[in-house]
Amino acid sequence: MSYNLLEGKKGIIFGALDENSIAWQTALRVHQEGGSFVLTNAPVAMRMGAIQQLADQTNAQVIPADATSIEDLNKLIDESMEILGGKLDFVLHSIGMSVNVRKGRAYTDQNHDWTSKGWDVSAVSFHKLMQTLYKKDAMNEWGSIVALSYMAAQRVFPDYNDMADNKAYLESIARSFGYFFGRDKKVRVNTISQSPTPTTAGKGVKGFDGFISYAEKMSPLGNATALDCANYTVSLFSDLTKRVTLQNLYNDGGFSNMGVSDAVMDLFEQQQSE
Amino acid sequence: MSYNLLEGKKGIIFGALDENSIAWQTALRVHQEGGSFVLTNAPVAMRMGAIQQLADQTNAQVIPADATSIEDLNKLIDESMEILGGKLDFVLHSIGMSVNVRKGRAYTDQNHDWTSKGWDVSAVSFHKLMQTLYKKDAMNEWGSIVALSYMAAQRVFPDYNDMADNKAYLESIARSFGYFFGRDKKVRVNTISQSPTPTTAGKGVKGFDGFISYAEKMSPLGNATALDCANYTVSLFSDLTKRVTLQNLYNDGGFSNMGVSDAVMDLFEQQQSE
Amino acid sequence: MSYNLLEGKKGIIFGALDENSIAWQTALRVHQEGGSFVLTNAPVAMRMGAIQQLADQTNAQVIPADATSIEDLNKLIDESMEILGGKLDFVLHSIGMSVNVRKGRAYTDQNHDWTSKGWDVSAVSFHKLMQTLYKKDAMNEWGSIVALSYMAAQRVFPDYNDMADNKAYLESIARSFGYFFGRDKKVRVNTISQSPTPTTAGKGVKGFDGFISYAEKMSPLGNATALDCANYTVSLFSDLTKRVTLQNLYNDGGFSNMGVSDAVMDLFEQQQSE
Amino acid sequence: MSYNLLEGKKGIIFGALDENSIAWQTALRVHQEGGSFVLTNAPVAMRMGAIQQLADQTNAQVIPADATSIEDLNKLIDESMEILGGKLDFVLHSIGMSVNVRKGRAYTDQNHDWTSKGWDVSAVSFHKLMQTLYKKDAMNEWGSIVALSYMAAQRVFPDYNDMADNKAYLESIARSFGYFFGRDKKVRVNTISQSPTPTTAGKGVKGFDGFISYAEKMSPLGNATALDCANYTVSLFSDLTKRVTLQNLYNDGGFSNMGVSDAVMDLFEQQQSE
Question: Whole-model pTM?
Answer without folding.
Answer: 0.97
